[in-house]
Amino acid sequence: MSSHAPAGPQAPADQAADIAAQLAVDPHAAYARLREEGPAHRIAGTDGRPAWLVTRYEDVRRGLADARLSLDKRHALPGNYAGMQLPPALDANLLNMDPPDHTRIRRLVSQAFTPQRVERLRDPVRRTADLLLDALPAEGPADLVAAYAAPLPIAVICDLLGVPASERRDFRSWTDALVAPDPSRPELARAAVGSMLGYLTDLIAGKRRQPEDDLLSAMIAARDEGRRLSEDELLSLAFLILFAGYENTVQLIGNAVVALLAHPDQLAALRADRNLLATAVDELMRFDTPAPLAIRRFPREDVDFGGVTVPAGETVLLSIASAHRDPERFPDPDRLLLDRPATGQLALGHGIHYCLGAPLARLETEIALDALLTRFPRLALAVPEPGLRRRPSMRARGLVELPVTY
Ligand code: HEM
User: Fold this and answer.
1) Which residues contact 68 (CB under 8 A, 6 or more apart)?
2) Which fold has domain 13-405?
3) Whose CA is nearest to atom 17 of ligand 1?
4) To test ligand 1's pocket by mutation, which of 66, 248, 253 has the most ligand atoms within 8 angstroms of CB?
5) For 307-316, what is each residue's pLDDT tens digit?
6) Whose Cα sits closest to atom 1 in ligand 1?
7) Could you identify the atom of ligand 1 that is nearest to the CA of residue 102?
8) pLDDT for the residue 8
9) Residue ranges of the domains in the chain?
10) Could you tell me if 198 and 192 are in contact, meaning their C-beta atoms sit under 8 angstroms apart?
11) Atom nearest to 97 CA in ligand 1
């Protein structure tokens, strides 16, 4: 792509594919160019079909809360969108819905997913974090994704939903197959979907027989007693909480550890003053968010982004990662500055789809980092940062492994 490439509907298909390829290699350099060139760009989306990538902070923030941008696939032009195909029992989830269905289900789950329920997880999260650190080999290196960043959120989400210890599974292989599917082996993603559906169906049947004081039982009661949720909606909600609650948190913990280890001055400041943690988590989310793109949206009518009109029914990708490096909003955006006021970051979304698990995501990340830094005063990357293996995905930014010494 030349630096003066036109950014409009006339942009040739190979140019759109080219932008996607550059985003995969060096996203921040590519985003910086795209923000300069224009507010919205025609690219090859995550499904290979044409999409519009929105790159500037104000446009992304406004887009996240714009009711004209639908999350319901029925508003996509026929043939224009070919995203992940899920069975109806997993697809009827909040991130595919607009009001009034979204409002009804979100209200139900918010009543069950209370701040008290999250707060009750604080001590168990800390205990699990400490146990996982105890279990690391005495001598490094160790892979911190496999040994810490992945098992911690699995334990937490199971505690929240009320999954008994004997029923816990390693969700990692399932979610990996969905988030970064191998295009040459589509059967793996299909098998993962089947496994998750079977697992959730069994789990719900078990809870129906033996309800307890947990989130899943509360959701089942909303279905069975109030008839306020269909069976597909119940399964889809459990799927979304399991998937979103696990996947993003693993990647955020991994990305945050890398960012800290790659910025020794910032790490030293945090070690010296742990009160920085709360603001630091906002800045770490801004700096390297695990969810670089919001869920795709489909305009119900033509929508203008800074002078570029996106026609109704086309696919809009709001780039949260690019918004986070927009110098108009965050001065000196490529620097990690843990004491900067980064509360305007959009890693957890904005508007009616704002992350339902936001307080839990924050709590987990703060505890994970605090426990790790407390335990290992000499924590370091075992390979230089450019050598770390990342997942080949435009949609999810995360590590395959994180080798560290301690
Ligand atoms: C660091 C971790 C997390 C990140 C970065 C994250 C990010 C996000 C984002 C960006 C959205 C909005 C998507 C959009 O509007 O396009 C969202 C929604 C959502 N998140 Fe999270 N999330 C995280 C953790 C969690 C956890 C722990 C849970 C549950 C326990 C969760 C459950 C949800 C749900 C259910 C929604 C849909 C809300 C709705 O549509 O009303 N997330 N998340």
Assistant:
1) 299, 300, 301, 303
2) Cytochrome p450 (1.10.630)
3) 355
4) 248
5) 999 999 999 9
6) 249
7) 41
8) 44
9) 13-405
10) no
11) 40
